[in-house]
TrEMBL record:
Transferase listed as a keyword: yes
Similarity annotation: Belongs to the purine/pyrimidine phosphoribosyltransferase family.
Keywords of this entry: Cytoplasm, Glycosyltransferase, Purine salvage, Transferase
The protein's name in its UniProt record: Adenine phosphoribosyltransferase
Subcellular location: Cytoplasm
Top-tier EC class: transferase
């Protein structure tokens, strides 16, 4: 957690029963609509990583891009998009992961970074952890070192952060929500 964690959490909107009954959607658009909140959000990540060697920010499609691009700029790192299958125009590596009903695939350009580079994986939210783990595994397959898997929000009751840690990756989130919040 960061000095701004409670404030950032208070700005995130919860939309109950969306996109289906029983789901609490954590809407980060208020963070981007309020300039002070967005600055505090980016600053939370900058303060955590400013003294850590990071060569690239691997941001997950699409909401991870919102945080990943300004963070890469602030840290003087490159920006690497981790995209949904079929969205990258060059030679790619792909990783498929399980969803509640079916599978999904993410891809990374084969030349996204150099072997041995230190990579921070970032997304907006950790739920079951499948997308984040797939991205981290792609980075390892390309010879990168995953510094940490980071997100704005963690939903620990869904088990994603525990699964990521169990796979050997460090996890950081700015704030977390329980299902009852």
């Amino acid at each position: 957690m960061t000095p701004y964690s409670d404030y950032i959490k208070s700005v995130i909107r919860t939309v109950r029963d969306w996109p289906q009954p029983g789901v609490n959607f954590r809407d980060i658009t208020p963070l981007m609509q309020q300039k002070a909140a967005f600055r505090k959000l980016i600053d939370s990540f900058v303060h955590r990583y400013q003294e850590v060697q990071i060569d690239a920010i691997a941001a997950i499609d699409a909401r991870g891009f919102i945080v990943g691009a300004p963070l890469a700029y602030e840290l003087g790192a490159s920006f690497v998009p981790v995209r949904k299958k079929g969205k990258l125009p060059f030679k790619t590596l792909s990783e498929t992961y399980k969803l509640e009903y079916g599978e999904a695939t993410v891809e990374l350009h084969a030349d996204a970074f150099n072997p041995g580079n230190r990579i921070l994986v970032i997304d907006d939210l950790i739920a079951t952890g499948g997308t984040m783990l797939a991205a981290a595994n792609l980075i390892k397959r390309l010879g990168g070192e995953v510094v940490e898997c980071a997100a704005i929000i963690d939903l620990p009751e869904l088990g994603g952060s525990a699964a990521i840690e169990h796979a050997g990756f460090s996890v950081f989130s700015v704030c977390e929500f329980s299902e009852s919040e």
